[in-house]
Amino acid sequence: MDQHSAKMPSPLLSIVPILALVALLFVTIRIFGSDALNGASQVVLLTTTAITSLLAMVFCKVSWKAIEAAICDNILGVATALLILLLIGALSGSWMISGVVPTLIYYGMQIIHPQFFLASCCLICAIVSVMTGSSWTTIATIGIALMGIGEAQGFETGWVAGAIISGAYFGDKISPLSDTTVLASSVTGTPLFTHIRYMLITTTPTMLITLAIFTVAGFMHSTEASSQIAEFAASLKGTFHISLWLLAVPVVTGVLIARKVPPLITLFVSAILAALFAVLFQPHLLHEIAGDSSAGGSSLFKGTLMTLYGSTGIDTGNAALNDLVSTRGMGGMMNTIWLILCAMCFGGAMTASRMLESLTSTLFRFMRKRVGLVSSTVCSGLFFNIVTADQYISIILTGNMFKGIYKEKGYESRLLSRTTEDAVTVTSVLVPWNTCGMTQATILGVSTMAYLPYCFFNLISPLMSILVAATGYKIKQHHEENKDFPVS
Fold first, then answer.
1. Side-chain-side CA neighbours of residue 384 (13 Å)
2. Residues 313-344: pLDDT tens digits?
3. What GO cellular component entries does it have (predicted)?
4. pTM of the full predicted structure?
5. Which of 97, 130, 90 is nearest to 270 (CA)?
6. Are 142 and 165 in contact (CB under 8 A)?
């Protein structure tokens, strides 16, 4: 029996796994705190998967084979993302130990004034993300360097991470190179550049508001960190060989991205190139990592491999800087990968049982008017991000579920594609157990709940989508005879 022939469960039954998930996560986080993601949250997700599967087989007559197939499909859908995560781990280690990130931090601290840092941080990440089409790559490269500059200038990590994520997801949302942008336009049947141009109506004012907030916050920031900046700069220069030649690594990475080389190849080449630069520019650090004071080639080889796959710690003489330049390599991504796999299991069980379909169908009663339609789409996108833990699945489910309704009510597909991106793409990073939330928290070393209040672009985007729908600006309806949906 496939999921389409399964009995549709009632909304009351469908909400049981969600309530169980929320309750168990609440208790788990209260008990384990920040360590909840080291295994406890994964067990919770598997437990709620079991609950969902049991309810589906008993009350909905769904076979285990159908549930297992849905879970496998979900996991297959994120297989590339898991490989990207591993390569990002290797890249973050090699970029740090090779001196690429320390060089960016060293010069960045001297160029960017603290009062304009947050706004500059957001704008830089926005530009890079538009060019690359990837929030993940932007955050894993320039984002890590900006985190270091922000900490050196005395900013709270939540503010810095919020500025980085706001800018990165601006580009991820509107870049023609972005996979989520292409996916949202494809699922809804909207031409890509039509979709991008229409998104600017909600995205532009959201970004301007975000930059204004970060500018004001920057002027309110105390600039008494000059001594700390000087101390950080001296420690960096005393530990790493700072050289402009090291910037060749991000330049080559940018060229590969501009030439649309697949992300897996780009990240691999970038990580290996940085590893080679580590051998050339930082051999003393590789010997330190390997725990071998000899100058032999085997020590360099061991240190290089450890940089790519394992945790590293460098003594810079500055305790705060030691934490900043420490890396976790590919191994540091394993908890994230473990969580994603468990989340995919839960999402697959919810999909196979048709419980997701049942819950979202209850939103249809609020669709009598245009604002209700857009609001329901936004709420569904947020809901899917929470329960499926993956933005790609959420975009597909939201687009497919509402496509027929928008067509029936006479609205253009571009309204659905824009609302889907406003609701799904940018909010995925705000959910702690979502693939995006877990990934960015892991890369930046800042918990999701710590940066969430400062991701202004991500928080405002869904509200802006509803606000623009309320004004009716540039929203066309073809079936004028439908009284519930007045022509704008």
1. 33
2. 888 877 767 766 777 889 888 877 887 788 78
3. plasma membrane
4. 0.69
5. 90
6. no
Q: Distance of CA 169 to CAs 201, 415, 429, Å?
A: 16, 20, 9
Reported as a single tens digit per residue, the pLDDT across 70-127 is 999 888 877 877 888 788 788 888 988 998 888 877 887 677 777 888 998 898 888 8
Instruction: Residue 198: name the closest of 462, 487, 415, 403 by CA.
Output: 415
At 354 the three-state DSSP class reads coil
Q: What are phi and psi of 350, to 5 degrees?
A: -65, -35
Rounded Cα distance, 118 and 360, in Å: 38
CA nearest to 162, candidates 382, 447, 465: 447
Residues in the chain: 488
Question: Strand, helix or coil at 312?
Answer: strand
Furthest C-alpha separation in the chain: 83
Predicted confidence at residue 365, as pLDDT, reads 64
Q: In this structure, is the dihedral angle defined by the CA atoms of residues 332, 232, 275 and 286, taken in order, positive or negative?
A: negative
Report the chain's terminal Cα–Cα distance, integer Å: 45
Cα–Cα–Cα angle for 326, 39, 336, nearest 5°? 50
Mean pLDDT of the chain: 83
Quick: pLDDT tens for 428-459: 999 987 878 888 998 888 989 999 999 999 99
Q: Tokens 């919020």 belong to which residue?
A: 162
- Single out the residue of 53, 22, 51, 42 nearest to residue 354, CA to CA: 53
Map tokens 């859908």 to a residue: 77
